[in-house]
C-alpha cells in the first residue's frame, strides 16, 4: 500500500462527517463467495448473470431455484470477514453519519453486526422469499432454512462428491423439478391455490426497492451537508443505480476511495480526489479505516 496515498486518505477520512460505502461482490471473496463477472462467475458452467433474470425463472424455475439454493448454502457456510467487520464498526460510531449500500445478497454485512438502520441491501437478500402470484404480496424475511424443500436437498454441492479428488471434478447433475417440489406460498395454499415462492433478490430488468432508494437519496441530498467520502469496495461498478452514486458524491465535492484487486493504483494516485487501494478489501479496510474504528479483530 502506498504510504502517501494512505496518509492523504486518512487525513480526509478523519475530517469526514458524512461517508457512504458502496459494496460489491469483491468484499465477500475472502469469505469464500465468488464474484459475478470474474472467471469464477459461473455455476456448473452456467453464467451466473444469465440465471439472475425473470426470464430464466419463467422458463425453468427449478433450475434457478437450484442455483439460488446453492447460493443460500454457500452464504450460510461463509463467515463475515474483517472487511465486513470494519464497516460494521464504522456503522456503529455515534459521531459519523454513515451508510452502506450493498449490492450483495449474501447477508454477510447484516451478520457482521452492521447497524441495520444504515445498511441498504439494494439487490435484496438470498434469505428473503416472495410469492410469484400477482394477486399475493406474501414476503418472508430471514428464512435460513436449508434445504428449503426436500427436492432441493443436495444442491449444496456444486460437484459430485465422488469426483472431488480428480483434476476435473464433475458437476452434480441439474435436476428436473416440478413446481410442486419448489418452495410454496403458504398464503396462497391456505386459500386453495398453488403459487411458488421466488428468491427475494432483484433480477436484471427488475425495479429496485423504492423505499430504500428514497432513503439513500435523502442521505445524499441531506440538509446536513454533502457527502465527504465514498468508499467503493469490490465492485465492478457496472450496474445502475449503484454506479451513479459515485458521480453524485463527486458532484457534491466528495472524494472517492476505491478498494479492488483489479486496479492500477499508479494511474489513480489521488488524482481528481480519487484514491485507489489495490488488494483484498477484507484486508485493506481494517487498515485504512483504523483511525476511526480502532483495531478489527479476526472473526
Ligand atoms: P462483479 O463481479 O461485477 O465485480 C466484482 C469486483 O470485485 C471486480 O471489480 C473485482 O476486480 C473485484 N474483486 C474481486 N475480488 C476482490 C477482493 N478480494 N477485494 C476487492 N475487490 C475484489 O460484482 P458486483 O460489482 O458486485 O446484480 O456486481 C454488481 C451487480 O451485478 C451484482 O449485485 C449483480 C450483478 O450482476 C444483480 O444480480 C442484480
Instruction: Using the 3D structure, state the CATH architecture of the largest domain.
Output: 3-Layer(aba) Sandwich
Q: Under the CATH scheme, which class of the largest domain?
A: Alpha Beta
Give the N-terminus to C-terminus distance in angstroms: 23 Å
Q: What gross morphology would you assign? A: globular
Ligands bound to this protein structure:
2'-O-acetyl adenosine-5-diphosphoribose
Query: With helices defined by DSSP (H or I, 4 residues minimum), what is the helix count?
Result: 12
Provide the helix percentage.
25-40%
Radius of gyration: 20 Å
Query: Which structural class is indicated by helix and strand composition?
Result: alpha/beta
Number of domains: 2
Q: What is the tally of beta strands?
A: 11
* Order of H and E elements: HEEEHHHHEHEEEHEHEHEHEHH
Runs in which pLDDT lies below 50 for 5 or more consecutive residues are: none
Fourth-level CATH superfamily of the largest domain: TPP-binding domain
- The CATH topology annotation of the largest domain reads as Rossmann fold
Q: DSSP strand (E) fraction?
A: 15-25%
Amino acid at each position: 500500500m502506498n504510504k502517501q496515498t494512505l496518509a492523504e486518505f486518512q487525513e480526509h477520512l478523519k475530517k469526514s462527517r458524512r461517508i457512504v460505502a458502496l459494496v460489491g461482490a469483491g468484499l465477500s471473496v475472502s469469505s469464500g463467495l465468488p464474484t459475478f463477472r470474474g472467471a469464477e462467475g459461473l455455476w456448473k458452467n452456467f453464467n451466473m448473470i444469465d440465471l439472475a433474470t425473470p426470464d430464466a425463472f419463467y422458463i425453468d424455475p427449478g433450475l434457478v431455484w437450484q442455483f439460488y439454493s446453492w447460493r443460500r448454502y454457500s452464504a450460510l457456510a461463509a463467515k463475515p470477514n474483517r472487511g465486513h467487520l470494519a464497516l460494521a464498526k464504522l456503522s456503529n460510531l455515534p459521531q459519523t453519519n454513515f451508510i452502506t449500500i450493498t449490492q450483495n445478497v449474501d447477508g454477510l454485512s447484516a451478520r457482521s453486526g452492521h447497524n441495520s438502520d444504515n445498511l441498504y441491501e439494494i439487490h435484496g437478500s438470498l434469505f428473503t422469499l416472495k410469492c410469484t402470484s400477482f394477486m399475493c404480496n406474501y414476503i418472508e424475511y430471514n428464512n435460513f432454512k436449508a434445504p428449503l424443500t426436500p427436492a432441493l436437498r443436495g444442491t449444496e454441492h456444486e460437484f459430485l462428491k465422488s469426483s472431488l479428488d480428480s483434476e476435473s471434478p464433475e458437476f452434480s447433475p441439474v435436476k428436473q423439478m416440478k413446481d410442486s417440489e419448489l418452495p410454496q406460498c403458504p398464503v396462497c395454499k391456505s386459500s386453495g391455490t398453488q403459487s411458488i415462492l421466488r428468491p427475494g433478490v432483484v433480477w436484471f430488468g427488475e425495479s429496485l426497492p423504492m423505499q430504500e432508494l428514497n432513503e439513500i437519496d435523502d442521505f445524499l441530498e441531506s440538509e446536513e451537508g454533502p457527502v465527504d467520502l465514498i468508499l467503493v469496495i469490490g465492485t465492478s461498478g457496472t450496474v445502475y443505480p449503484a454506479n451513479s452514486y459515485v458521480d453524485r458524491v463527486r458532484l457534491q465535492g466528495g472524494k472517492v476511495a476505491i478498494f479492488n484487486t483489479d486496479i492500477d493504483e499508479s494511474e489513480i494516485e489521488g488524482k481528481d480526489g480519487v484514491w485507489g487501494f489495490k488488494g483484498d478489501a477484507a484486508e485493506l479496510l481494517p487498515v485504512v479505516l483504523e483511525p476511526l474504528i480502532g483495531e478489527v479483530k479476526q472473526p
